Amino acid sequence: MIPAPSPNFDERPGGVAFLVLHYTGMQTAEAAIARLRDPVAKVSAHYVVDEDGAVYALVAEEKRAWHAGVSFWRGVSMLNDASIGIEIVNPGHAFGYVAFPARQMAAVTALCLEVLGRWPAIVARNVVGHSDIAPDRKWDPGELFDWRGLAAAGVGLWSDGFAPPGDLLDDLAAIGYDTRFAARDVIIAFQRHFLPEHLSGEADMMTAARAAAVRALIDAPA
Fold first, then answer.
1. Is 61 noted as a catalytic residue in this protein?
2. Which reaction(s) does its UniProt entry say it catalyses (predicted)?
3. CA 202/CA 215 separation, integer angstroms
4. Cα angle, residue 151 at apex, residues 146 and 152 outer, rounded to 5°
5. What is the full DSSP assignment across 183-210?
6. Kind of pairing between the strands at 76-77 and 72-73
7. How many Å apart are CA 215 and CA 82, to the nearest integer?
8. Of residues 11, 30, 87, 114, which has the active-site annotation?
9. What is the C-alpha separation between 178 and 67, in angstroms, rounded?
10. Burial class (CB in 10 A: 0-12, 13-18, 19+), 3
11. pLDDT tens digits for 116-161?
């Protein structure tokens, strides 16, 4: 863990119940870390994970970092209040989006498991991407992120299955999405996370069947 303290934080109003994963969306790790430490930018995260697996610690987990912005998940708004934010170095869709290297994903997985160990209130359904909580404006960490592998290691939810489809938007709302946004934005955010090989943005049968399967995971008794 490499200390890289950011001044961009304040006090939390309560506990922690969410883990939000982002990509940096900048051309270099150095530029991203500099911005997250710039008091003028007024953005930050708790951690940054570089492509080589190096982990930078910017904000103490007990403090509120400024990474989620206007956001919503499972009835909770403004997720900065109750979340840990991890930025993962990747140029993003604006600068030549690429797959996340295995060494980087291993470091992300290990860091997430450590965070979950410290904050047991972060249940699997509350491990989300920035695009999940802000589908109208964010795409990260995107369709190349290995959500399947992360869930296999014990971080977050995944389903490779399909279930009898119901009302798609109703299922997406039950999973956690804010369905007050344009339907296409919400659907493609779901697809980026749970159906990355099928970014149609459409309320088609494949998407509805996967959403029903994910909802079944969430609805299953603990």
1. no
2. Hydrolyzes the link between N-acetylmuramoyl residues and L-amino acid residues in certain cell-wall glycopeptides
3. 18
4. 100
5. HHHHHHHHHHHH-TT----S--HHHHHH
6. antiparallel
7. 23
8. 87
9. 18
10. exposed
11. 999 999 999 999 999 999 999 999 999 999 999 999 999 999 999 9
- What DSSP state is assigned to residue 56? E
pLDDT in tens, 190-220: 999 999 999 999 999 999 999 999 999 987 7
Task: Write down the residue that tokens 């710039």 correspond to.
Answer: 38
Distance CA 133, CA 101 (A): 24
| Cα–Cα distance measured from residue 39 to residue 45, given in angstroms and rounded to the nearest whole number | 13
DSSP string, 79-116: GGGGEEEEEE---TTTS---PPPHHHHHHHHHHHHHHH
Domain ranges of the chain: 2-158, 160-222
pTM exceeding the 0.90 threshold for the entire prediction: yes
Give the list of residues 6+ apart from residue 23 with CB closer than 8 angstroms, or none: 87, 88, 89, 90, 92, 140, 141, 142, 145
**CATH tag for 160-222 (out of 1.10.150.130, 3.40.50.1100, 1.10.101.10, 3.40.50.80):** 1.10.101.10
Helix (H, G, I), strand (E, B) or coil at 30: helix
Look up the CATH architecture of domain 2-158. 3-Layer(aba) Sandwich (3.40)
Encode pLDDT of 48-66 as tens digits. Answer: 999 999 999 999 999 999 9
> Rounded to the nearest 10 degrees, how much is the dihedral formed by the CA atoms of 196, 200, 203, 204?
-90
